[in-house]
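Data's thin. Show one?
=====
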Amino acid sequence: MDPFLVGATIAVAVLIGAGLHRVWAGPTVFDRLVAVALVTANGVVILVLLGAVLERPNLFFDIGISYALLAFLLPLALGRYFEQQIRERDAAGDREDTPSSGEVSS
């Protein structure tokens, strides 16, 4: 085991902990979405590092690639969901009174 790889794996695990804190305490949904993307990206890095540390790169790299593909689809699905929610809200007439682009509010 290479001590550098073990240390890098531990450091990335700490970063995942920080990202999970933001997922839990994020003030907005979009902060949480960005934090989930961070956690999944760091998860892929940990899988690659574990593959190198445990000398089983083929297994961990395949799992990492699969996990990265799923992590890529999550923001797309959530973006579509939020877009649909906004359209439904606008169609129902729950839109806030905001000035149009030509109006000036005082």
In short: The domain at 3-91 is CATH 1.10.287 (Helix Hairpins). Residues 57-91 form the longest helix (35 residues).
